[in-house]
Automatic annotation (TrEMBL):
Organism placement in taxonomy: Bacteria, Pseudomonadati, Bacteroidota, Cytophagia, Cytophagales
Record-linked Pfam families: Ammonium_transp
Keywords noted in UniProt: Ammonia transport, Membrane, Transmembrane, Transmembrane helix, Transport
Domain Ammonium transporter AmtB-like: 1-387
Lipid bilayer topology: Multi-pass membrane protein
Name the record gives this protein: Ammonium transporter
PANTHER family: AMMONIUM TRANSPORTER MEP2
Subcellular location: Cell membrane; Membrane
Family statement: Belongs to the ammonia transporter channel (TC 1.A.11.2) family.
InterPro entries hit by this protein: Ammonium/urea_transptr, Ammonium_transpt, Ammonium_transpt_CS, NH4_transpt_AmtB-like_dom
Record-annotated membrane-spanning stretches: 21-45, 115-138, 144-174, 186-204, 216-237, 249-268, 274-293, 300-321, 333-361
Length: 387
């Protein structure tokens, strides 16, 4: 999925920024893998450190020393966290979620960010934003999952909302490009990247059942059907708005369908997944042309696709998810209200902490390239390479 995202983003930017944009996604495999091994997994799935409510401890973050350097992470299952697969397999599977989240953010400030500043950012983001959210949502005693009862099957909240709001913070802090108008460098890269993402998402969503079972099969089905529905909705909605049907539009629609289904993939039916894809495509398509977002210069519309898509997915999950007592239709307004409170809280947390990281980091490592470097392109100015 991460190389797929690299191609997807790389094809969208101008030719003089193709390599730099692709590398920003690809390098996340290196940076986050190291951070996750040393301390990230421990922060996400270590014993909870948090607050006590009614005699129960609910985690805000994990013990940073418990699984440092994958200590005690071995081939045996973990009785409460990963009882169906080897614990080390679970740790590596979760690592891939951590890898792709900051890679998603890169699209918001593409074509104008210094590479070294970005590398520092993703390491810090993994520790201060991703790991706490991962712990609160997916640890058995996490505050969001265990206390508020919020469902996130495969990362709608943990991955897409956090990345979407961080993207908005990045676009706002780093500022607009000198030249916002360019032709995509390679439409075939976009289509190839979309295919890799779509295929990889089966592992992302179906794999989150941690078993080859009925839940995995349902997640597999809802994932591809939501994506297909969103793709077709996107292209026909474009046509209804007087725009041509484009390959890039079809690809963006497909990815939005994948985003919106992610939090609910194993909790809903196939007809409901079609509704998810339809609504997600319409809302994200409208967000794409919102005047507020255009003023921010979110280069590849990451917030409109991943942020808005993740938010829509979380809201629909709060309405339709089928486990007993877990959604509006299966538990009433109280659980729906809990989801909405968490939605606001996670959005504010992701945006504020990410903006603070950009602000503080910029004091030590200038994040934006010089005007002349932006003009010549980041491929040459940052890496001395050309596509």
């Amino acid at each position: 999925m991460t190389p797929g995202l690299s191609l997807f983003y790389g094809g969208m930017v101008g030719k003089k920024n193709l390599i730099s944009t692709m590398l920003q996604s690809f390098i996340s495999l290196g940076v986050v893998t190291m951070v996750w091994t040393v301390v990230g997994f421990s922060l996400a799935f270590g014993d909870p450190i948090g607050i006590e409510i009614d005699g129960e401890l609910y985690g805000l973050i994990g013990n940073p020393f418990q699984y440092m350097f994958f200590d005690q992470v071995n081939k045996l299952p973990h009785i409460s966290i990963a009882s169906s697969i080897p614990f080390i397999l679970f740790a590596l599977f979760q690592m891939k979620f951590a890898v792709i989240t900051p890679a998603i953010i890169t699209g918001s400030f593409a074509e104008r960010v210094r590479f070294i500043g970005y590398v520092f950012f993703i390491g810090i983001f993994c520790v201060l934003v991703y790991a706490p959210l991962c712990h609160m949502v997916w640890h058995p005693n996490g505050l969001i999952g265990a206390y508020f009862g919020v469902l996130d099957f495969a990362g709608g909240t943990v991955v897409h909302i956090s990345a979407g709001l961080a993207s908005l913070a990045g676009a706002m802090f780093i500022g607009k490009r000198r030249n916002q108008h360019h032709a995509p460098s390679n439409i075939t890269y976009i289509m190839l990247g979309t295919g890799m993402l779509w295929f990889g998402w089966f592992g992302f969503n179906a794999g989150s059942s941690l078993a080859a079972n009925g839940t995995a099969a349902v997640a597999f089905a809802t994932t591809t059907i939501s994506s297909a529905t969103a793709m077709m909705t996107w292209v026909f909605f474009d046509r209804m708005q007087g725009r041509k049907i484009t390959a890039m539009g079809a690809c963006i629609g497909a990815v939005v369908g994948l985003v919106v289904i992610t939090p609910a993939a194993g909790f809903i039916t196939v007809p409901q997944s079609m509704f998810f894809g339809f609504i997600g495509a319409i809302v994200s398509n409208l967000a794409l042309s919102a005047k507020f977002l255009k003023q921010m210069d979110d280069t590849l519309d990451v917030f409109a696709c991943h942020g808005v898509g993740g938010i829509v997915g979380m809201i629909l999950t709060a309405i339709f998810a089928s486990p007993e007592g877990s959604s509006l239709l299966h538990g009433g307004w109280a659980i729906f209200g809990s989801h909405m409170v968490v939605l606001v809280g996670v959005s504010v947390f992701s945006f504020v902490v990410s903006y603070a990281i950009f602000f503080v980091l910029n004091k030590f490592v200038t994040l934006r390239v010089r005007d002349e470097y932006e003009e010549v392109g980041l491929d040459i100015s940052q890496h001395g390479e050309s596509a």
